[in-house]
Specification:
This protein is an alpha/beta fold and 352 residues long. It has three domains: 77 residues, Chorismate Mutase Domain, subunit A; 179 residues, D-Maltodextrin-Binding Protein, domain 2; 76 residues, 3-Layer(aba) Sandwich (D-Maltodextrin-Binding Protein, domain 2). The chain is 40% helix and 28% strand. Strands 1, 2, 3, 4, 5, 11 and 16 form a seven-stranded mixed beta sheet that branches.
Length: 352
């Protein structure tokens, strides 16, 4: 152990403290949704008493109280502001978070473990919005998300078409010649297969791209790297060894923004969900109806619904207030079952 080694450990601890403070603030913002008033003297006393009881011998109770007085003051300050919260699946730095910032950089992104958690927290009012990926040009349809969309009452209020660019990230002091393994989500590993093989790296599947970057940083894995967004490098103090390592440049993921209520402004794209009647050629006639009315389709996917039945997701260009769109939707009611307009919204294009 030497001075430089000790300082690196202190720097890592400082980064972890900052992350935990950020996590605490996020939870405080969510808690505001379930409180009548921001100030809660009983709760503050409870927090300070509990912290004081857990103080270590190195740090006296007076110092801890001063630190937490500041933390609680800042927490109340954040809660007093009118922040909009947007939930996403994954760790901070995930491409979903990048897409959320592209949609509205003023929204506060809140991480969730599962997609179901995103839906649940928008439905119960904990989050104002949720952002979920629905399709990738290389990986195809995201089945888990589509299953959740079938059963939700949430509205689609926006979309982001994000160019995905993967980076190879490692610890700043790591020697790239000594890196032997690379962590990332299985889909990202497959999208960078040629690069991984050329670099003679062993791909290790991890639950999330951003989570893999976080893992490398927190565990200080000197002989490992992560494949994740450039944003992850900034968040987790990792060095970008190489950018744009994906095998195919045309790698895009489309995200939908969800909310409890539809947007009031006029949109340029619509999303619907429907099932077809059990008659031969019904789906063909649905598609023909859009073609006859010169409405461009941008997506059509089918996912299993009830046993023996399929549900179709269809996106098309236009506004729900357009006469030809109104006409088509009216005629679709007679041709389909369970027809639902999920939303009419605007779409943004962005890059990671």
């Amino acid at each position: 152990m030497d001075l430089n080694n000790i300082r690196r450990k202190i720097d890592l601890i400082d980064s972890q403290i900052l992350k935990l403070l950020n996590d605490r603030t996020e939870h405080a913002l969510v808690s505001k949704k379930f409180k009548k008033e921001i100030k809660d003297n009983d709760r503050e006393k409870q927090v300070l008493a509990r912290i004081a009881s857990k103080s270590s011998s190195l740090i006296n109770k007076e110092s801890i109280s001063k630190i937490y007085d500041l933390i609680l003051k800042d927490s109340k300050s954040f809660q007093s502001k009118d922040y909009s919260l947007i939930g996403f699946q994954g760790a901070h730095g995930a491409y979903s978070e990048v897409a959320s910032k592209a949609w509205n950089e003023k929204y506060v992104p809140i991480p969730c473990i599962t997609f179901a958690e995103v839906f649940e927290n928008v439905e119960n009012g904990a989050f104002d919005f949720g952002i979920i990926p629905v399709e990738n040009t290389l990986g195809g349809v995201l089945g888990d998300v589509n299953q959740l969309l079938i059963n939700t009452s949430l509205k689609v209020v926006g979309a982001v078409d994000l160019d995905i660019h993967h980076c190879l990230l490692a610890l700043p002091e790591a020697d790239h010649r000594e890196i032997r393994e690379v962590f990332s989500h299985s889909q990202a590993l497959s999208q960078c297969k040629n690069f991984i093989e050329r670099s003679k790296l062993n791909g290790v599947s991890y639950y999330d791209t951003a989570g893999s970057a976080k893992h490398i940083s927190e565990e200080q894995k000197a002989f490992s790297a992560a494949i994740a967004s450039k944003f992850c490098g900034e968040l987790y103090d990792l060095e970008v060894l190489k950018e744009n390592i994906e095998d195919i440049p045309a790698n895009k993921t489309r995200f939908l923004i969800l909310a409890k209520d539809a947007v009031a402004e006029k949109g340029t794209k619509c999303s619907i969900i429907f099932s077809t009647l059990h008659k031969a050629g019904t789906l063909f006639h649905v598609l023909e109806l859009f073609a006859e009315n010169k409405i461009n389709l941008s997506r059509i996917e089918s996912v299993p619904g009830k046993p023996g039945d399929y549900v179709f997701f269809l996106d098309f260009e236009g506004c729900a207030e357009d006469d030809n769109v109104k006409k088509v939707l009216k005629e679709l009611e007679a041709m389909t079952t369970d027809l639902r307009l999920m939303g009419c919204y605007k779409e943004k294009k962005a890059t990671s």
